[in-house]
Specification:
2 copies of one chain form a homodimer. By secondary structure, chain A is an alpha/beta fold. Chain A has helices at 2-11, 32-46, 62-72, 131-143, 161-168; strands at 13-15, 19-21, 29-30, 53-57, 76-82, 91-98, 103-110, 119-127, 146-156, 172-180, 187-188. In chain A, helix 2 (32-46) packs across helix 3. Chain A starts with a helix and ends in a 7-residue tail after the last strand. Strand 5 of chain A pairs antiparallel with strand 3 of chain B. Chains A, B: It is found in: Cytoplasm.
């Protein structure tokens, strides 16, 4: 997605350890105009597959997800993150390990908001090691919901997440795919001819 | 705001201890159409006062805030919540006590995203004891930013928050004001003739 790549080039900063900081428009400060374009792009890609619900994780997934939800006219559910859950009654839960923070968080979704009748689109802000999306997939499986696709705002294609998700067989649509951050240079994956 | 009050009446549930659950459309599952209407309503109320930035708190403030940001064409910043902050370099911080969870959280905003040149609109999903908004006001003060108003989606007018915020003198616009939840009945504050 050209507009997003331009924002990443212009406002993203590369920190040591292959960290891409995009907190001027996605992770801390949010650019609503860009997020609407991002949400519309996801909606456009998945509008024919009968999505009934969008599922994301707090907090940075919420903005792109609500705009996709608006465009598809479906509700959005965000999984909550907690160090550890004490009460798990009526919750679907999964444990997600963060390599950057080196800690595990439990994520959860109320059983009231996901059912086996749902066809869901998973949306997240970043795909790096893939643990967060795998956690969402586990929650979808617990609910018996059908996963129609995975929408990622920024994918670090050089980390293991993409490969892990491809093994699941679900359609993945990443709006910006970063091939490398070496030498503090942002290089995008070249567009494939066939999507 | 009539549409919001209808949603609260239809989908809200009252739990013991004056708790109003609205997680079908605001706190866990999000109704994007309603959130857009909410955001537009805030934008309409504060469109003449030169807002340069909207500030909210993760996670439930984000959806209404991004739609207000879209309508006003300004960026949104969400304060992050943490049990305790270890690194506070380059952060505005404030401690917020939650009466419901009986714990304090530090909230923070990067100094990169708030400045003394900003005129801000604070948005939050709930006003009960007012501690979260007071925390945001403290952060605004640290930044030297001007606060042009406070937008609240649902106010529990029978708790102390409203009175505490009124003392600050900033304009408060609550879209739904709940007078009482006694006997598990939701009663709204009667509309005032003069806004």
């Amino acid at each position: 997605m050209k507009l997003l790549e331009e924002h990443i080039r212009k406002h993203g900063t590369v920190l040591p350890g292959n960290v891409l900081k995009v907190d001027t428009f996605l992770n801390h400060q949010i650019d609503p105009v860009l997020m609407q374009a991002v949400g519309n792009e996801f909606a456009d890609r998945f509008k024919e597959v009968g999505i009934t619900k969008i599922v994301t994780i707090e907090s940075s997934g919420i903005a792109p997800a609500v705009f996709a939800g608006l465009a598809l006219d479906v509700p959005v559910v965000f999984a909550r993150k907690k160090k550890s859950l004490t009460l798990t009654d009526n919750l679907y839960t999964s444990s997600v390990y963060s390599f950057t923070k080196q800690e595990a968080n439990d994520i959860s979704v109320s059983k009231n908001f996901l059912a086996s009748t749902d066809t869901i689109l998973l949306i997240d802000d970043f795909l790096a090691n893939g643990q967060a999306v795998l956690g969402l997939l586990e929650i979808a499986e617990q609910a018996g919901a059908e996963v129609a696709g995975i929408g990622i705002v920024i994918e670090k294609s050089f980390q293991q997440g993409r490969a892990l998700l491809e093994k699941t067989g679900f359609p993945i649509y990443s709006l910006a795919r970063i091939a490398s951050l070496d030498n503090e240079q942002i290089r995008f994956v070249e567009e494939e001819v066939v999507q």
